[in-house]
Amino acid sequence: MNLHALRLFYEVASRGSVTKAAEAMHISQPAVTAQIRNLEQELALTLLSPQGRGVCLSEAGELVYTHAAKLFALELEMTRLFTAYRDGSLGKLRLAATYLPANHLLPAWMAAFKSSHEQIELSLTTSNSRAAFNKLLHYEADLAFIGGSKEAPAGLLREELLMDELWFVVPGQHPLAGKTVALAEMLQQPFVLREEGSSSRETLFAICRQYQVQFPQIGLQFNGQHETMRAVMSGYGASFISALEAAEYIHQQALARVHVEGIHAPNPIAVYRRSDDDLSPACEQFLSHVHAHIN
């Protein structure tokens, strides 16, 4: 079916006049008439009949008009949706993140973004950095927010967003609370650590290798940072965690920082994306929103 001719028929039927339709479509009246005749021949149906200075619909014309109205309404809706998608106000955004950005940064960023982008579906999966990278590389996430000094794996691009720091912490009433000690003394404590693949654990072990000291004894191991901190706050061992996470509990004296001589462990928060893919409009809008919140 010739959709251009169907469009002209729809405009004539809507306006009840070939002249008015021709003016609205900026086409000559004879061209409109010729197109509608061609459509009638194609369908083997009479669609319009003269009525005074205008036209009226035949029974077949009514049927064609009803379905044409649905078709062009759908076209209008598709145009609206595509425009909204291009503008970044419609779409789906899947985020992967490690514990720190997932618990301390992204909830506020996502809530504020959603309030002004109601038609964008947002989801967040929390995991360690290794699993978050895998989700991104296997197209199960659109962006990954990672805490820790992680080089971008092959196929990914890295953008640093803000800088955190990793601190040694102990229970609030621990003998080392608030003191400055040597690394070797600090590592004599039993440690509560995250699972293999977590950024804080890998950074701690890298420090041990750099200073050629023995790895700490792992007294407890958890799959989440919240559980790790809770164990230390309950009175057991020491840990190596984000300042952003620890600050509130240190203020409450549930945890205490231990200053270790010569150790400064920056903990950047970065966002990663696939290097060979263009960001979707929704991704671009969300990243712009994140930058605005940080700045």
From TrEMBL:
Domain of life (superkingdom): Bacteria
Chloroplast among keywords: no
Record's keyword annotation contains Membrane: no
Keywords: DNA-binding, Transcription, Transcription regulation
Limits of the HTH lysR-type domain: 1-58
Entries under Pfam families matching the protein: HTH_1 (PF00126), LysR_substrate (PF03466)
UniProt record similarity statement: Belongs to the LysR transcriptional regulatory family.
Name of the featured protein: LysR family transcriptional regulator
Native source organism of the sequence: Paenibacillus baimaensis
